[in-house]
Amino acid sequence: MGDAMRYALLAPGKRLRPALVLMACEACGGKIEDALPAAVAVEMIHAYSLVHDDLPAMDDDDLRRGRPTVHIQFDEATAILVGDALQAEAFRHLSEGIPDPSRAIAAIRVLASAAGACHLVGGQSDDLSAERDQAAWVEANQNSSAAVAPLRTVEHLESIHRRKTGALFSASLAMGAIVAAADEKSKTVLSDYAADLGLAFQVVDDLLDFTADEQELGKRTGKDVDRGKLTYPGLLGIEVAREKAKQLVSSARQHATYFGEAGWRLTRLADFVYERTQ
After folding, report:
1. Which of 68, 121, 250, 259 could disulfide-link to 27, CB 3.0 to 4.6 Å?
2. Distance CA 201, CA 277 (A)
3. For the chain, what percent of residues have pLDDT higher than 70?
């Protein structure tokens, strides 16, 4: 079990969410070292969600971060247990690693909300439902000239991804602010930054599934199209989706200017999200 947990958690990756925890703490005048438990915790939640998302019952992926997914490398039962264990360990790290009880409780509350039924899990559930609905619609309308079901809208897609992807971005920044004892204005600005950055990240992720090299990306490409998933390029086209990502990143950069020089890492990270190729 320990080997499988390490395989999932320590796989090569961008570590964006823990980086956001540390950057938010720094931007709000806190010490990066104090935010490390929260950074570890959010990466554990993210890793657990990937392990479960990759299972055959969900996205059924066999490649993640350039390596076999956990259920392929080990087995399905181990993958389920690894996800369960990582989720539990995340909250243990928060409860034991943040010395101030009130801040620890606040961080636990934020992360639990982001990972729960109203956000990450709910977004994944809605994503799977949309995929099933599209498959059923295509089956029932094989002679139709329409490419997608009428109910598949940008608003629906944004709702899915603000929960499935954006919630952990928001939680990461919020926990960094909590550790730094940030004022309410700073927390609000970080929340706005997170909303734009998280959605930009997902738009770019969808674009990469259409355009990236599979070996460089580290996971299967074209699978979203094959499965009939709701994506930004699928709804808007590649160029419009790319422009949307650019606008979201520009807005995120503008929010980061509130912190002056202390927010330069947040600005650079927004650029990275738009420019990334994997």
Report:
1. 259
2. 11
3. 88
For residue 179 the two structure tokens come to 């550790």
Angle in degrees, CA 172, 211, 128, rounded to 5? 55
Q: Which pTM does this prediction carry?
A: 0.90
Phi, psi of 15 (to 5 degrees): 55, 40
Q: What is the residue-wise DSSP string for 181-192?
A: T--HHHHHHHHH
pLDDT on residue 214: 60
User: Do the Cβ atoms of 234 and 196 come closer than 8 Å?
Assistant: no
Q: Residues 90-113: pLDDT tens digits?
A: 999 999 999 999 999 999 999 999
Residues 6+ apart with CB under 8 A from 262: 26, 27, 28, 29
Give mean pLDDT, residues 191-199.
97
d(CA 160, CA 158): 5
Name residue, tokens 């897609």: 157
Q: In DSSP terms, which residues pair with 67 in a beta bridge?
A: 64
Backbone angles phi, psi at 93, to 5 degrees: -60, -40
pLDDT tens, residue by residue, 224-251? 666 667 789 988 999 999 999 999 999 9
C-alpha–C-alpha distance, residues 234 and 224, integer Å: 9
Q: How many CA atoms lie within 13 A of 79 on its CB side?
A: 22
Overall fold of domain 1-275: Farnesyl Diphosphate Synthase (1.10.600)
